[in-house]
User: What shape does this take?
Amino acid sequence: MSGPAYDDRGNKDRTITKAGQVGQLRAADNRDARPVHSRDAFLIGDGMTGGYGRGADILHDCTIAVEKGQIAVIVGPNGAGKSTAMKAVFGMLSIHTGSVRLGGEDITRLAPQARVRKGMGFVPQNANIFTSMTVEENLEMGAFIRTDDYSDTMAQVYDLFPILKEKRRQPAGELSGGQRQQVAVGRALMTEPTVLMLDEPTAGVSPIVMDELFDRIIEVARTGISILMVEQNARQALAIADQGYVLVQGRNAYTGTGEELLADPEVRRSFLGG
Amino acid sequence: MDFLNALVALSNFVIVPAVAYGSQLALGALGVTLIYGILRFSNFAHGDTMAFGTMGVILATWWLQGLGVSLGPLPTALLALPAGIAICAALVLATDRVVYRFYRAQRVKPVILVIVSMGVMFVYNGLTRFVIGPGDQSFGDGSRFVISALDFRAMTGLQEGLAIRTSQAITLVTAIVVVAILFWFLNRTRTGKSMRAYSDNEDLALLSGINPERVVLVTWLIVAALATVAGTLYGLDKSFKPFTYFQLLLPIFASAIVGGLGSPVGAIAGGFIIAFSEVTITYAWKKVLGHLLPESLEPDGLVQLLAVDYKFAVSFVILVVVLLIRPTGLFRGKAV
Amino acid sequence: EDVPIGVILGFTGPIESLTPHMAQSAELAMEEMNESGNFLDGHTLVPVRADSTCIDSAAATAAAERLITDDGIVAIMGADCSGVTGAVLSNVAVPNGVPMVSPSATSPALSTAEDNGLFFRTAPSDARQGGVIADILMDRGIEEVAVTYTNNDYGKGLADSFQASYEEMGGEVTLSAPHEDGKADYSAEVGALASAGGEVLAVFGYSDQGGKGIIRSALDTGAFDRFVMGDGMYGDELLADLGQFMEGSFGAVPWSQGEGTEAFTALTEEAGVNGESSFTRESYDAAALIGMAMMAGGEATPEAVAANLMDVANAPGEEILPGELGRALEILAEGGEVDYVGASNVELIGPGEAAGTYREYDVTDGDYETVQFR
Amino acid sequence: MIEVHDLHKHFGGFHAVDGASLRIAPGSITGLIGPNGAGKSTLFNVIAGVLPPTSGRVTMAGEDITGLPPHALFHKGLLRTFQIAHEFHSMTVLENLMMVPGGQAGESLWTTWVARGRIRREEAEIAARAHEVLEFLTIDHLADEKAANLSGGQKKLLELGRTMMVDAKIVFLDEVGAGVNRTLLNTIADAIQRLNAERGYTFVVIEHDMDFIGRICDPVICMAEGKVLAEGTLDEIKADERVIEAYLGTGLKNKAKTEAEA
Amino acid sequence: MSERIHSGAGGTDRARTVLLFVLVAVLILGTGFVQSWNTALVILNMGLVSAIMSLGVNMQWGFAGLFNVGVMGFVALGGLAAVLVGMPPVPEAWAAGGPRIIGALLLSAGVIALAVTLYKRMTPGRLRAFLVFAVVVVGFFVYRGLLDPAKEAVESVDPAATGYLGGLGLPIVLAWPVGGLLAAGAAWVIGKVALGLRSDYLAIATLGIAEIVIAILKNEDWLSRGVKNVIGLPRPVPYEVDLQQDPAFVERAASLGMDPATASSITVKLGYSAFFTVVLVIILIAAQLALNSPWGRMMRAIRDNETAAEAMGKDVTGRHLQIFILGSALLGLAGAMMTTLDGQLTPASYQPLRFTFLIWVMVIVGGSGNNFGAVLGGFLVWWLWVQVEPIGQGVMSLVTAGMAEDSAVRDHLMDSVAHMRLLTMGVVMLLMLRFAPRGLLPER
Ligand SMILES: Nc1ncnc2c1ncn2[C@@H]1O[C@H](COP(=O)(O)OP(=O)(O)OP(=O)(O)O)[C@@H](O)[C@H]1O
Ligand SMILES: Nc1ncnc2c1ncn2[C@@H]1O[C@H](COP(=O)(O)OP(=O)(O)OP(=O)(O)O)[C@@H](O)[C@H]1O
Ligand SMILES: CC(C)C[C@H](N)C(=O)O
Ligand SMILES: [Mg+2]
Ligand SMILES: [Mg+2]
Assistant: This one.
């Protein structure tokens, strides 16, 4: 019943499983957030300022937005606050200034579960699969809020990631790093969300899978789903992005279309690895 | 040389009691394992939860008996079960509301919850004794035996008797049915899977739209039902006494752990392992061998591997040995 | 003025179901003395309860310490289990010079404990009971028994002394197996005992503890149908539950012949106390003796209790039964002498412990039936 | 440096590593690539003593090290990082690094009672080194932050930083690049080359970023389905049809095209 | 560096520590003023012992994350040491079978050693399995054949008063380190076998082993009289009665305005307090020094993530064994001290609730991972354990105050007043953890 040891459940390979702690996330308490309204978008985290618990602010007047059916990509150095911004948009980080709006509706005060029901899907950067459940059950859990028949979506996910079909009866905790990442993305796709938020979906996946993944993301966006993602494989990501954000120390440093950012030599040198 | 008598003697003193005791332990261990699996802590209050639920059943049984209701050969207590479960559920849900929920929100380490559950144990402990007192209560009625030793002897003409109690039979059947249902529930139903998901990764469960409070609620309801059923069956077979229920905690935990914490099937297997090891290792084979061997070879001594003094020690030795061979129990990770 | 008397019994723990009755019986005696109006002028006996837990010496010691130093108790009625009694005696009672009268600590070892003349008990040492039970068996022509005892100093001491006497008389103990109280299951014990065999099963345990569990399990499996029982097994609830199946069983229990017990039974019935539970008589007597010893000494002090307890308990003097405490106090006030008989036929011998007469009983028609006294 | 002979690692019926044999030349920076699930991490784990092999042998500088526990291998100069960061979450970033050096006097109980002065001196040295490493990784401002509070990439950096705390002979890097900013990754690549050149470290690098591999690795080994599929310089590997089919995919050509255009 | 960590406790943490310790002092002193000094000292003495036990558990759990639920067993071994060291030998019993018993024990040790060597030296296979098995089985029967009659002979020497071999008749204080060693030896064996297990599985294994230790203590009468208990252990301090008969002492007591009985019992208790305090302080300092050093850092690293620590060159198994032995030795030491304080060994009183779980409550309520927390928890929880009885009774009389003298509810409640004790304990524990969910003095 130790901390980490206690929580070690079902994971066989301890070198690729993080001995999990108890959940770290908590639903934000944004009751007193001072709203900001700078512009409109389908999903927008507008002028967000806030941080973890009682610590210093991580985000400073940070704005992230994505339009319907478009792809927005967030890039920036490590620790810039990209994941933090995603969490803020999803209601897992208390912000004291700013607002989050979805389709014009202010959702700043909604709990994460409620946001899921509003059509938002999220793949966090770490701990993003149910390790003790099989691959198939992971996907089913992705479709938890769906009441319709989701076997088609599941077939699509299996098409996209054939390895998952092969391993569908295996506990996800036994998969390799890249395979887990595929499960995580597949899980989010199962939700059939209106907005899909991905935190570094391609970390650790092989080139061939990454290409397919990006292709698929474009396809998904074409069906009218908005995509908001953080990427370190920034050049490929920006290449398909309608909108790009560069965050530095919790602030918007550069904003523009994907092409604009790719073309900006300063951005290339400092953030995209030349 | 009398094979039949030997077999009957062995069944009567080893197999039947161990199977019954094993299923009793298993039912208790199921509750423990479920809480461990889903709410992630070892619940020390489980023994006293069982006592409390059983107390509810006893009070209801007395009331029913007062009304003259009976179930014929079956104990009236079975009729009173729903009432007991309801009372027990109310208690655990109230506890969760007042106590556990706070710590869940705080995301405390599981060991804190373990200690908290000890506090809860003390409180339940007092509550039960306040209401029904510390003494022995009998509430069984109906016919005690499916077949008694005497009847068996009369029927078969054998020298040895075989007794099977109604409560033993009910317990075994219940244990099997409950495990099957639980297994099905956790692995096949949406709610069950959402419970496993929650236990695996709370944060992600939240992100999938699973309502944690509902998971917790369902878990406690199942636990209350399990605890009450287990406690009642145990009480029918032996007798009800709050202190004994507290003492049951140790073998129950042992069962849950040998079987693999978090696994319902493991709980059953663990219950049987503990029960059989307690009963067989210290069994004196004199009687059985006496039937089997020709008269000239009949043993003088007891032919006992170890004195019953070491009964508990032995069951723990077995437990340790099992763990050394399978360090995370027999059924780790198969379910829940 | 209040005279606080400690009542230190295991209100929680393994014998928690016996102790309330014991405490009530003791308190009954104190009340009786108070109500008679004859107790030391203007003094009232006030029972102060504390929990010995029966097993946790440290907790018991702390509780006793608190009673003595905080509540200022003058004497202790208790403790109950031999283990904690020994601890309280040597750690608290002796250092503070407070006398203890235990109603139920029966371990032979306590006879030789260093007590500075402060330790008394109204229950006989188990050294004697073993012999009595062996006699009973021999008289009935039973020469082979299996024995099971509760695994503590009481059970072990009794089983040992029984086995020694019985074997000396030519009997055979096929197996002497301990059982732990409060456990869930006794199949293993019963299995071994059945295998060992014997005409009857001797049970030296507690009637609402493992002892009962063993009997139940032995009956259920048909391993034994007759039992011989020690004092801890005497209790109405046992017969209420299992009596009909135990026909022909028998046993011994410390008991006084005739009047004393009856008087006590009447008394408890009237007061609504369960006087049939084990050690209630001894508890009543222990409390009564403490009060009378004070009276005899003319002061409510520990010294008075320690000095006079033997005198009031034994002859010479007028015989006193339960319910007659008022009269006893009167006699003592007048400078007379009493010989307390009480509920358990008190006769203190040697180092201040009950000599003990035992009632041999049969279980007939689901009830206790006296055979004779020994 | 390291030789792997016909190594097998089975999980139940599944052959994660299925008869892999390879040689890591001393002083090289060897790249290890292959599709997801090829068995790369498993191979690492077997070499590093975390998992016992089903069969096969591993030697290091001619000495058989099969089945040695990880801590023994560490002291032989074999270090590794984890694909999923394994930070010591309740400790500060600085402490995460300071715990690494082996054979610290202060790690023996007795010394902590009798030789406080010696410990203090030793600690000062280690702390200085740790600060250097943190500076290099651009996370020195986080020295006193709890490791649990780092961002995903920062944890990977910390993971790398640990291997820089001691003088190693061979370092296994399991996807240090995943989740690390590309600009920083270039700096890391430089550092790896410097360590390799100046201190003679041998590196084995698992990575899915071909740029990174191309920048520093020679030779490159490609694994698939638990076996070594191809071995050679990056260009040779890139040209290998089987590698393209199993791993690189045709997307690489498109990407190369986009890059040429840009 | 270590200095930095040391002072890194920060002002508020330190203030909190001081404040809480003052609170405990107030509680104990208050007990002295309100109830009596004897009671206060009884609580203090057991508090000191509890603090050592809780430090032991804290080492294992707080430092290294080892879930030892076998506290009771180690404490009992310490108690056994007190008997083996302190009691006078029983010559008749030695004559009756002493050497034979020693021989049997040596034989069993030899058999185990042989079996282990065979297991280690031989190549795995049927032959090895068979040989090891044969050695063990034959050894067991020879051992029993040798031991059983000797045992019987020893146990039949005046069973009511002795019936055992007795001890060495040495000063009882020597039993304390011996208790520690005995526990450490047991911990070594257990650690070798069971430390590979993780968390709860280790827990149940240690719990089981503790039960085995108790079973041995209860049933091996020749060793320590089994359930018949050993009473009247010698003491490191004078007897009250002797003091009371010492005119000089009586005079001094009178000059302080105390009656001799009270004065003597207080003096004796203060004697124990002095001994125990010295031990506790030494241990606490050593533990603090260790914790705030690279050793402590390594331990925390191991606790946080064994896999990574192992990869960083830390011998996790070895360190686990080290700390398991160390913590257990403390438990044994405290056990011997406690038995000395009690003056008797009563195996039946070793109950998991009291000796394992209560100690755990102390560690967690105090704050695991923090030595001062563990000590604080030891004192506070012990104080509670003793005081909940009067508190419970007080609460109950408050509750029933408004009820009619003869109301049935009141009677019922007053009858069950004893059960207020555990109930109160539970409620207070829950309240404390509510306000300090990570313990009163959490780890930084
Ligand atoms: N404990 C386990 N039980 C069963 N299968 C396992 C286990 N660990 C790994 N595997 C399987 O072994 C295969 C190899 O895994 P490994 O982690 O070595 O892949 P990898 O080459 O490192 O992939 P990636 O690039 O995605 O990290 C995978 O298919 C995985 O599913
Ligand atoms: N739980 C936390 N508590 C306190 N601070 C945190 C926490 N998580 C992250 N931080 C801090 O917030 C800052 C931003 O972290 P974030 O995870 O948002 O970075 P990121 O941009 O996603 O970086 P990366 O690319 O490395 O994932 C970092 O400096 C980190 O130290
Ligand atoms: C009340 C009884 C449980 C006490 C028992 N006779 C003993 O000496 O321990
Ligand atoms: Mg991030
Ligand atoms: Mg990998």
